[in-house]
Design brief:
With 468 residues, the chain is mostly helical. The protein has helices at 2-13, 18-33, 38-47, 56-69, 72-84, 90-106, 109-114, 116-126, 131-142, 152-161, 165-171, 173-194, 204-229, 234-252, 257-271, 277-295, 301-334, 337-348, 352-366, 372-389, 394-408, 416-425, 429-436, 440-452, 454-463. Helix 5 packs across helix 13 and helix 12 (173-194) packs antiparallel against helix 24 (440-452).
Length: 468
């Protein structure tokens, strides 16, 4: 245990990437103790990424990149401005609403921060907001990306914990709404204290236009349902509604209806059983290509190639982490480290609430040092048996783990959102960290609520019959 974990921590302190540190410490352990032939280690490495659910990873990443390159983020931003820009602290509220919509497409906090976050920070600076305020609210809202479906961390967690990814996706909706409300209340408090004004004039026409777009999107599943009730087949009903939607979008020239359709297609498709979460990722890519190449015609072959190569690069790094963490987690089990840690945790308390408090503290700390995917891959095999022992629903635990690790993305030394926003805003890491600190309050309040009120997470998937 000392060699495995000690060498891993030492290599990280020396500045090696997380995946390289895990792979090197695993090789050292195998060489010194001969716990398995080299071929077994290689097989475990390959088995870590040989999973059908993991196919969703490159497709969700590609969908987010395509949305950015197709200019969809700009349309989402314009929609959010029309909807809430008239409020006090308008552009800060726009920041949050824009992130909510974009999170239904990308599934990652980094895509949110680097995509629509870039537009939001520039707009807030241009309207006279302190750059620290722009960075803080952008960082906080970026955490919504992996909470609202779709979510890459949920895909990884579902694979590791053998939990329905569809159930995890549905479980993230209500917590995402709770986080959104808390962040909007925080903006309202800041606006009152710092006397921020509105950034666009109050216009019933703009609000009506934005509300109409939301209404049109909501009518899509209702229209499909009504057409099936009168005896039309499901496929024909979908075709008719999509044709009507395209005609309305072309005639009224809506700014964001087709973009807002992305989460409807994904969530509705999985809910109705049309496709699995992995297939939903492919549907997201096809819809992104349709928007960029056909509807908006803003995507060029050059931007398509760039989005593809960016996806390859990101996917390679993610899957390398998953593969290395798979071997590392296997060795933690073989060396009985996982069992020792489990015994140590259960010896501290027999209360599941105390256990959840300890786990929250552990993961908030781990999230500052480990990549999200690596942390999930390493911690799930250790903690899940204890979670089941305390009769905690693994779907509920998945939300707790993911939110903790999202908060960790905002902290040094390895918080990736922190570094992305530091580069975008041209601020030092130290100033960016200080700017983010006040915005941790709504996130921590949300974490407490989600941890100690399981119904926030479990009500929707239970009502939909995804969990018992």
């Amino acid at each position: 245990m000392l060699l495995l974990i000690g060498s891993f921590l030492l290599l990280m302190v020396l500045g090696l990437p997380v995946a390289v540190s895990m792979a090197t410490s695993s090789v050292l352990y195998i060489v010194f103790y001969g716990v398995a032939p080299d071929i077994i280690a290689a097989q475990r490495l390959i088995a870590g990424v040989e999973s059908f659910p993991l196919l969703a990873v490159p497709f969700f990443i590609l969908a987010g990149n395509l949305m950015n390159s197709a200019g969809v983020t700009g349309r989402i931003y314009s929609f959010a401005v029309a909807l809430v820009g008239w409020m006090k602290g308008g552009l800060a509220q726009v920041n949050i609403i824009g992130s909510v919509v974009f999170s239904g497409m990308s599934g990652t906090a980094l895509a949110d921060a680097a995509g629509i976050g870039t537009i939001e920070i520039k707009a807030m600076k241009d309207h006279g907001y302190p750059v620290e305020a722009a960075v803080g609210v952008t960082a906080a809202s970026a955490t919504l990306g992996p909470i609202f479906p779709p979510s890459l961390p949920f895909v990884i967690y579902g694979m590791m914990a053998n939990v329905s990814i569809g159930a995890l996706f549905m479980a993230g909706i209500v917590p995402g709404v709770v986080m959104t409300v808390l962040m909007m209340l925080t903006v309202a408090v800041f606006a009152y204290v710092k006397q921020w004004g509105s950034d666009t004039p109050f216009s019933l026409r703009n609000i009506f236009g934005a509300s109409l777009e939301v209404l049109v999107v909501m009518m899509v599943p209702i229209g499909i349902y009504l057409l099936t009730l009168v005896g039309l087949s499901l496929n024909l009903s979908i075709l008719i509604v999509l044709v009507v939607l395209l005609a309305c979008d072309w005639y009224f020239d809506f700014s964001a209806v087709m973009a807002l359709m992305t989460p409807v297609i994904l969530i509705g498709g999985m809910t109705m059983g049309w496709f699995t979460p992995t297939e939903a990722a492919v549907a997201a890519v096809l819809w992104s290509l349709f928007l960029g190449l056909v509807r908006y015609r803003t995507m060029t072959m050059k931007s398509l190639a760039k989005a593809t190569f960016d996806t390859i690069e990101t996917t390679a790094s993610v899957l390398f982490i998953v593969a290395a963490a798979s071997v590392f987690a296997w060795l933690l089990t073989v060396s009985q480290t996982a069992q020792l840690l489990s015994t140590a945790i259960t010896s501290l308390t027999d209360s599941k609430w105390v256990f959840l408090i300890l786990v929250n503290l552990l993961m908030l700390f781990v999230g500052c040092f480990l990549d999200t995917i690596a942390a999930i891959t390493i911690l799930v095999p250790i903690l899940l048996p204890i979670v089941l022992q305390f009769d905690i629903d693994p779907v509920h635990f998945g939300l707790i783990m993911t939110l903790n690790l999202m908060i960790g993305l905002l902290h040094p030394p390895l918080g990736m959102v922190l570094f992305v926003l530091s580069r975008v805003a041209k601020l030092s890491v130290e100033r960016t960290t200080i700017a983010i600190l006040p915005w941790l309050v709504p996130l921590l309040v949300a974490l407490v609520l989600i941890t100690f009120i399981p119904a926030i997470t479990l009500w929707l998937p239970t009502e939909m019959g995804l969990i018992r």
